[in-house]
């Protein structure tokens, strides 16, 4: 079995896919091994998602950037060991927003040069507004998974959601272009979430276990999506 690289944008449903892949025990460990930025040594911070949006109100909702500590080195061998299951299969999940630093770390090599034969899986979400609402909520609460304790009560912002719709769309399109010559498997969240089993079995040859995560979408999310569509129509 080839290694697996799950290519995604934030809040696309990739966590559900990766948790189900991990549960098989034969498909590697597709964590976000490359999520820390070279300049800070830290994962995404709230303000980084909204970079380029000149909106004082949105900025007032977000903590200041932590300068962190610049990365001095990156150990691909350690990633390989951590991301490999006992059967020798490596897996990783990569967000498009992390690729600039990943390409720099590779120093002209390809992912295949480092990890061997790879199979690529692109996760997409058709409803970009729902995806952006989910991301905007998680940015504010820092509750990324079911069970995480929210750090703040999220508030609605048309400007923030519109920015994130565009940002997520650009990231997905960039993945699609990069993956075009690599013949990826494409997983559509809205279809996959209804019945994950066929996708997991097609990728691994192993039936899917029951989903390990609960959906975080709720009445507030639906109301924000509807409100955004209404305000967007008025602005058109």
Automatic annotation (TrEMBL):
The active site is at residue 32. It holds the Pfam family Sulphotransf. Signal peptide: none annotated. The keyword Cell membrane does not apply. Pathway: Glycolipid metabolism. It comes from the Bacteria. It catalyses: alpha,alpha-trehalose + 3'-phosphoadenylyl sulfate = 2-O-sulfo-alpha,alpha-trehalose + adenosine 3',5'-bisphosphate + H(+). Belongs to the Stf0 sulfotransferase family. This is Trehalose 2-sulfotransferase. It comes from Solirubrobacter phytolaccae.
């Amino acid at each position: 079995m080839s290694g697996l690289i799950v290519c995604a944008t934030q809040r696309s449903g990739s966590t559900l896919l990766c948790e189900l892949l991990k549960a098989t025990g034969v498909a590697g460990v597709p964590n976000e091994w490359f999520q820390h930025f070279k300049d800070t040594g830290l994962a995404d911070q709230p303000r980084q998602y909204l970079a380029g949006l000149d909106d004082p109100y949105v900025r007032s909702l977000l903590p200041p950037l932590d300068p962190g500590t610049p990365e001095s080195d990156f150990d691909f061998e350690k990633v390989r060991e951590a991301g490999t299951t006992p059967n020798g299969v490596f897996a990783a999940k990569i967000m498009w927003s992390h690729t600039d630093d990943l390409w720099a770390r590779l120093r002209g090599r390809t992912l295949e040069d480092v990890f061997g034969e790879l199979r690529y899986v692109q996760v997409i979400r058709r409803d970009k507004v729902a995806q952006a609402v989910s991301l905007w909520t998680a940015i504010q609460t820092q509750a990324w998974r079911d069970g995480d304790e929210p750090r703040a009560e999220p508030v609605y912002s048309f400007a923030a959601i519109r920015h994130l719709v565009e940002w997520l769309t650009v990231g997905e399109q960039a993945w699609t272009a990069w993956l075009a010559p690599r013949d990826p498997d494409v997983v559509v969240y809205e279809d996959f979430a209804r019945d994950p089993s066929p996708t997991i079995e097609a990728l691994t040859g192993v039936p899917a276990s029951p989903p390990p995560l609960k959906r975080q979408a709720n009445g507030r999310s639906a109301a924000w999506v509807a409100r955004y569509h209404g305000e967007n129509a008025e602005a058109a």
